[in-house]
Amino acid sequence: MRLTKTGLATMAALWAFSVPAFAADLETQIRAVLNKPAIEGTRWGLRVEDKEGHVIASIAPDERFQPASNTKVFVTTAVFDAMARAPFPNTGNGVRIESDHGRQNIVLIGRGDAMMKDTPDCEKDCLAALADAVVANLRIKGGVKRVGDVIGDDSFMPFERWIISDRIRPGTRTQISALTINDNELTVLANPGDAVGAPGRAALEIAAPEMEIVNQITTGAPDSRAEVMVEMIPGTRQIRLFGSLPLGGKEQRLDFDIDDPADYAAIRLAQLLRERGVKVTGHPRARHAPMGPVDLIPAPVAPAIQAKDLSTLTPPDLIEDLTVTSKVSQNLHAHLFLKKLALTQGFSPTTPAGRIVLNQTIARAGLPASAYDFYDGSGLSPDNRITPRAMVHYLHWVEAQPWAADWRKTLPIGGVDGTLGRRMKNPVLQGKVFAKTGTLLAANALAGYLVAASGRELTFAIYANDRPSGAPSVLPTMDEALALIAAAN
To answer: Membrane-spanning regions, if any (predicted)?
Structure first.
């Protein structure tokens, strides 16, 4: 049959009508999934586009949402972008150790390496290797190897206290320092006492004699509930534990953030030296550089001492750190990357300066300033904001960059690894979602790329904010909506 011009025009009109009708039908189904009574009150935002920018689904695309750890998308891509332009500052500069000639002090110097460990299973970038180097370089005086003070120096980065917020849970690695150890986190092992009413027992998993444990744990009845909390009192070396453990109950592992990582690193190095037969005649202590009054001028550093470089650790490859940052959503590493971004413009490695460089990258991607705000590198700040449309636009821009494939390898994969390893086990999504998660107290996010049932790739961003207290997790609902989109495309 031959079609006339009128017939062709009629078919074109029907086709043009059918596409938005299908999209509208899909959005209706998505809204039905998102608006479940159990999570009523949750504010949703969604944007899904194909690689050519055609809209598949869109809900509140221009409302501003808390992105949570979606923030790491911007920070890690900014690092990749900076690496493509020039050698990234501080690459390969691991933690080093020096001794001064006059006072026999040992100085442990951090320059932003986030990967140094002090755990029994450490195989590379280990504090123990520096302790061995100190021992090998010490002279014996009176038959005893000795040192004076053990100093943890993080003055490479001006000293910044992290934000204090009751919306940030303990154990989120919120203390930032150029001298980092064990992700700046400590573990206390807590056990019940030997009788109901007796004090519980508590000890650090890794010995640190200078740290004082204030144990206020009591022992409850055998059928009582285990409720124990831990806090590190700011500005001190005191660790307070409180609550109750049932008689005969299991040991509890309690993770919490180190208040002063440089000080703790000095404490641990001093302990490792003692274990190696070295007498520490002085004290472990920290050395910081204060924040300057102007963000973009290098802050003053502590006076240099006449020192001898004893040893320097070799940190893992930068890509390995970026992969850890994205896969497990490592807050400390992400924020250190933000501060290092400042160095690419010759600024002091501070959070405000890092934000300036981050915003330059985002502006080059074409995002309007009204569509986003970022105050940190990790996404823990409750004041961060992004619109779904802006996030998808940014992800499109990323895909056009020469480093896009390398960056994409750092993302969690649905049902496979990272923060998506336990989600998306259904065949529609498993192994087909490459995206960054985000979680705060009342906010969840997911943004990245989805291979639909047809094999074509979609770019998406979905946000759930203002989830009411006591409402169930929105993650299953979020995944259900993505499965619906994947199956329909």
So the answer is: none
- pTM for the full predicted model: 0.88
The average pLDDT across 133-139 equals: 87
* Distance in angstroms (rounded) separating the CA atoms of residues 75 and 329: 12
Three-state secondary structure string covering 395-454:
HHHHHCCCCHHHHHCCCCECCCCHHHCCCCCCCCCCCCEEEEEEEECCEEEEEEEEECCC
Distance CA 43, CA 10 (A): 40
Mean pLDDT, the chain, as a whole number?
Answer: 88
Min mean pLDDT across 79-93, 193-207, 394-408, 418-432 is at 79-93
Q: What is the mean pLDDT of residues 249-264?
A: 92
Residues with Cβ within 8 Å of 439's Cβ and at least 6 positions away in sequence, in order, are 68, 69, 329, 445
Tens digit of pLDDT for each residue in 364-386? 999 999 999 999 999 999 899 99
- Strand, coil or helix: 327: helix
The DSSP result for 293-310, as a single string, is SSTTSPPP-PPP--EEEE
Could you tell me if 128 and 182 are in contact, meaning their C-beta atoms sit under 8 angstroms apart?
no
Q: Work out the number of other CB atoms within 10 angstroms of the CB of residue 309.
A: 12
Q: What is the 3-state secondary structure (H, E, C) of 169-183?
A: CCCCCCCCCCCCCHH
CB 101 within 8 A of CB 432: no
- The whole-angstrom separation of Cα 424 and Cα 482 is 10
pLDDT per residue as tens digits for the range 36-46: 999 999 999 99
Buried b (16+ CB within 10 A) or exposed e, 436-445: bbbebebbbb
pLDDT in the model for residue 101: 61
